Amino acid sequence: MIPVVMPTYARADLAFERGEGVYLFTGDGRRFLDFAAGVAVNALGHCHPRLVKALTEQAGRVWHTSNLYRVPGQEKVAAKLVERTFADTVFFCNSGAEALECSIKMARRYHYAAGNPQRYRIICAEGAFHGRTLATVAAGGQKKHLEGFAPAVDGFDHVPFGNLNALRAAITDETAAILVEPVQGEGGIVPGDPDYLRRLRATADEFGLLLIFDEVQTGMGRTGTLFAHEQAGVTPDIMGVAKGLGGGFPVGGCLATAKAASGMVAGTHGSTFGGNPLAMAVAEEVLDVMAEPGFLGHVRAMGALLRAKVEAAASRTPGVVAEVRGLGLMLGFKPVMPNTEMVARLAANGLLTVGAGDNIVRLLPPLIIDESHVDEAAGILSRTFDEVK
């Protein structure tokens, strides 16, 4: 008999009743240090007072009007994103997958409007993850996500992540764009080399391609800058964002230059709920908090401290952890045992983490953690590593 909730997730047997800051609490009173953050979503922790205030105040005014009319909140949030990024314009949606769908459509539409409709293919990286729609699983290209959903959406070519020679060899007269994550997330916390990212920009310019960055997981301060590509000194033409943008409220965005978005005219794309007043009220507050002096510097400091503590815990128990990698507060370690078992053991000891590809355990804490939370997490990691050893 099928459950009333469709069984598409291998859920842990945990149900949380409330959250406060960096902690989650079950109905029976157990407390967990949340270093999963809803898979890098709860960037400001749980029930941040400024987000609660922004949401509840907006809820008392208007929830939804649709995009048939102006949404003043969209105009304010878009202006702040444009001010702080490479972009000239923003399309608002509800999720990361939708942000990448818009990115893919925009790249194709750009070449169509320029009189080159044959240029529709996008070069993507092996091991990528861009969402769960038919187009985004095809862009990700991972067999486990494509199985049972044939035929795969056409138009995506895959090359090894970080291999510029392979990428250049894959360019044809049909190529429209390059799509990569600056740090592969679901693929196993694999940072792109800054020089590789810069060379992607140069290659796109050389061949008249658009460069798309998927910053759904890496964006909104997660890696220590507002967006990860800033650390390489390079800018894309199109960027998909979501997760931390709403601090837990569903919202996504597709940011673009005026050139890249030149084909996106009325009727080419849409979303019923995208950019609704509730989402915009929260997103604006998230951006304001992250713009405060010292916020991103704190993320960098906590990221360096957490990495040092994880590496120290691993070194004290040789043979348990093979590798630690990541950027900012987007960290991962590779246990020798199956990562699913390690995630379960850590949860039993009070620390929530997230699995990823390549047998990685992800540490994605709220960006508001302090030294005491890092010490608490390090203590749980050490205790768990000792148990495993």
Task: Outline the structure in words.
It is a single chain. The chain has helices at about 35-40, 50-60, 70-85, 95-115, 135-140, 145, 165-170, 195-205, 275-290, 295-315, 340-350, 370-389; strands spanning about 15-20, 25, 30-35, 90-95, 120-125, 155-160, 175-180, 185, 190, 210-215, 240, 250-255, 320-325, 330-335, 350, 355, 360-365. It is α/β, with parallel strands linked by helices. It has 2 domains: about 15-35 and about 295-389, Aspartate Aminotransferase, domain 1 (Alpha-Beta Complex), CATH 3.90.1150; about 50-290, 3-Layer(aba) Sandwich (Aspartate Aminotransferase, domain 2), CATH 3.40.640. Strands 4-12-11-10-7-5-6 form a 7-stranded mixed beta sheet, with helices on both faces. The mean pLDDT is about 100.
Topology:
Elements: E1 16-20, E2 23-26, E3 31-34, H1 37-40, H2 49-59, H3 72-84, E4 89-93, H4 96-113, E5 121-125, H5 134-140, H6 143-146, E6 156-159, H7 164-170, E7 175-180, E8 183-184, E9 190-191, H8 194-207, E10 210-214, E11 238-241, E12 252-256, H9 277-290, H10 295-316, E13 321-327, E14 330-335, H11 339-348, E15 351-352, E16 354-356, E17 360-363, H12 371-388
Parallel strand pairs: 3-15, 5-6, 5-7, 7-10, 10-11
Antiparallel strand pairs: 1-2, 2-3, 4-12, 8-9, 11-12, 13-14, 14-17, 16-17
Helix pairs in contact: 2-9, 3-9, 10-12
At a glance:
With 389 residues, the chain is an alpha/beta fold.
